[in-house]
TrEMBL record:
It comes from the Bacteria. The active site is at C46. InterPro entries: Met_Sox_Rdtase_MsrA_dom, Met_Sox_Rdtase_MsrA_sf, Met_Sox_Rdtase_MsrB_dom, Mss4-like_sf, Thioredoxin-like_fold, Thioredoxin-like_sf. Residues 304-426 form the MsrB domain. Keywords: Multifunctional enzyme, Oxidoreductase, Signal. Has an important function as a repair enzyme for proteins that have been inactivated by oxidation. Catalyzes the reversible oxidation-reduction of methionine sulfoxide in proteins to methionine. The gene is msrA. This is Peptide methionine sulfoxide reductase MsrA. Belongs to the MsrA Met sulfoxide reductase family.
Amino acid sequence: MALSSLLKLCAGALLLSSTLGNTPQANTDTMPATTHLDSIVVGAGCFWGVEKRFEAMDGVTDAVSGYADGTGVEPTYRAITQRRNQHNPNNHAEVVKISFNPAVISLTTLLQRYFEMHDPTQLNRQGNDIGTQYRSIILTNSQAQYDSAQQVMAAYQPLLTKAGFGAITTQIKPLREFFPAEQYHQDYIANNPNGYCPDHSTGVRFNPQEQEQTAAVDNSALLQGKHILVIDSESYCPYCEKFKAEVANSYSGDIPLQFRYASQLSGLTLKTATWATPTIILLENGKEVFGRQGYLSAAEFYLLLGKFKLGDSEAFNVAFDEGTDGRFCQQYEIFKNTPDGVFTDKLSGVPLFDTRDRFDSGTGWLSFTKPVTGAVIEKPDNRYGMRRTEIRAKVSGIHLGHVFNDGPNGRPRYCINATVLDFVPRG
């Protein structure tokens, strides 16, 4: 073709592209996001947690729950979970298709995290999830991926063996076809915020330094007195992060709250299984008093803590049943003339009232002109035929008392029950 004809052809193409609002620049802008990605399909038990853990990794652009590697079974959740397919070797596996940018996260690193996030020595199960649908499997899209998976698995086996685990059962195969799971399975954990992440990891790491960091922990302090033990995840668990953000980070009570991995519980006497994260366990002298698997809201956590710390007492009745101290009760007599300091929430440890705002109202209950800024919330209380304003602790939600408009010099009177407070002298 002559040069002049070629130039005319190019000019015509540019004009048409411009007319359609599709300039060559707009087309090239989309190329980096589509031409440098790779994908691999893996199964490591229930796909909900696997999907969420991979989505949290830098370099992973998408993770989709689905089914693969089955024959003669419909690729639907209803079909693969039928009893007759529980031990069917031709059943589909619950898998996750991971799209990733190799320039940000290598396939080797991705596969190392995969092996670390579950127990690849368990055959057709992960913890209490039993059946061929939960098998450990890697499905590759090329010979290079297959070879990499074999190399990573071979490197992991001696580390597991040294830690006392058996042979890896993970299958490595070429991917035939991937079937996306039903929509309600996608981003399941993000859409169901009050649950737990099944964590069946062995605790064995490829990096020896990471292994040392999560190794043995001294639990001797937990063998004396009361403690709150939270089983954390060694990999990403959104329920754990939510519990930390919404409950643990604002807790400063006098019963210590400790985080441990399931591999760091030596010396403790526990009854509750520790494969779910978070799991909250109440300890007394190193022995479990109560255990609860899964995320706890602040209200649930403080009710549990109230039973643990306060037992069957007037303080518990005030805090959770909205009771009232007796006038001039023993705790009032102790607190009415304390030194300079602050009164804190008996459960959360958060400062609520300051002695500098305390005054003697003559009522027989502690009285203050104001609370610590941002420490309490007000709620209407129309019980018993009265219209009052109830005061609750913002962090723990426990009942504190009421506020009235008959304080000194036109200021409010916060009438507060002494039994739900602790006192801390000003340092």
